[in-house]
User: Fold this.
Amino acid sequence: MMTVTRPMFSPGRIVLCNLLGMILIASWLFPNLTFWNELDDAVFFLTNAWLEDANTLWVTFVAVTNHRAFDVASLLVLLAIFIWAMRRDTASTPRLLHWGGIGITMLITAVVLTQGVRLIVPYGHPSPTYAYDDVNLVSQLVEFATKDGSGNSFPGDHGVNLFLFTAFMWRFAGRQVALVSLFATLLLSAPRILSGGHWFSDVYFAALAINLIAAPWILFTPLGPRIANAVTTGLVSVRNRWLAN
Assistant:
């Protein structure tokens, strides 16, 4: 017997999340509000001042966490949380394929969301390390490849995917796993900001607002659960055919 995820329509949660997202967007768009600009500059100049030769350990830490290998480590952290969520789920049968359906649905959503944002949102801006002259570049302070800038850092793709992961955990795994996922999101999104590769608002305005607007329409309607159920059913069918041969 296969236990499927019950479709759920929660208009109250959708309205609440969308309202919070729109408040964030309004706080960024209104020309007389300089909150995000001031916060971005304050965070960047504070953290950039720490990147100097005298702070060898800190510079090395920031450089390592902005190396491509750290992206693999980040994926392993998320995978560990995903496996933990799966192991906690004793109601779903077959559990592995059920969570395989959830994972594939999450990956599909991430691709559609990030590509959709690129098509819909015409705005972009460079990293703070590209926007200002005479700044400390971590890539020039270490002898290995690391990333400290981008021609377009808006929105933060890592942040979008990390918040989306947290949203999926909240919907399918419950509050405890979601809180751990949120803590991981805060930690794993920090390196790009510490290196100057992203503005603070690229993550905590743009990535968060995108998820508050879009994710509820997938997770708090039958859409997401039904896609996950369909994928799970397909995986079960493939497994049964393979075992029959």
About this structure: The two ends are 21 Å apart (CA to CA). Residues 95-120 form the longest helix (26 residues). The mean pLDDT is 90.
